[in-house]
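Re: weekly structure request thread

Next one in the queue (260 aa):
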Amino acid sequence: MTVIALSHGEPIVLTGEASNRTLDDVTRCELHGFEIENPKGMALVCAGGGYLKLVFEKEGIDVARWLNTLGYNAYVLAHRLPGATDEDSVQPCDIALRDGLRAMTALSDWDLPFFLVGLSSGGHLAGTLACQKTPLNLRGAIIAYAPVNANHKDYKAPAGKADFPPPEKQAFYDAWPIGIAAEPHGIPKCPVFLAYALHDTAVPVEHALNFIRSARDLNLDLDAHIFGQAPHGFALRDHDGSHTLWPELARDWLERHRRS
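Done, posted below.
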C-alpha cells in the first residue's frame, strides 16, 4: 500500500480494533493505493460513515483488496468531512467532493478503464463524482446501500425526517440529489450498478427506487439489485442473507463495462 497526500495537514490516523478501524478525524485528504502488476482497470473507492467518519477498513480497504483480486488497481479516498472543525475553521459542505476531484486528477495519468465504487455515504459521494466532468476514462459507478437522494429536503424518506447535523452535511445532500430526473445536474454521466437492502431502515429503499424511476424515464444504463434479506452495511464480509452473491454480480458488471 502507498499513501499519497493530496492536501496539507497531519497524516491521518486510523482508530479502533484491527479489521474494523475507522477514520474519525480526517486531518488531510489522502489516497491509499493498492496496486497490482498488469492491471486491466482502476477504481476509486469511497467508504461510508455518514460523512461523520470513514469506515475505512470494512468499506474501503476490504473493497480495494477485492478489486485487486479482479485485476484492478484500487485507491481508497480519505476525504475530509463537511462541518468538521479544523483549528479555527469549519470544513465547507462540498469538501468531500473537492477532495474526490483532487483524487481523480491525481489518478489521471493512468490510461485505464476507470470506475467509482462507493458504499453507504461513500456511494453518495461516488454518485456525485460520477456527475462531474473528468479526464479519466470513466466506465461506471458501483453504489451500495447509499443515501443518494432521499436525504434531500424535497425527497425525504420517510417524509418529515429531520435534517442531518451538522448543517454542512445536510447542505451537501441538498446540493446533490443523485438519480432524480428533476435534478439533471445529479444524473451520473456513466452506467451505474446499485445494490440495496429492501428493509434497510438506515437507508430506505426509496433511494434506489427514485433512481430506478429516473433510469426508466431517461433511458439510463442502470443495473439495480434489491435484496430481501440483507442488513444495512453488508459490504463484503456479511454472507448471511440474500445479498451473498452481490460481489459476483458486481464483478460481472465491471467486466462487461470495462470491455465496452
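The chain has a mean pLDDT of 96. Helices lie at 57-69, 95-106, 121-130, 167-175, 206-218, 246-258.
Next request, please.
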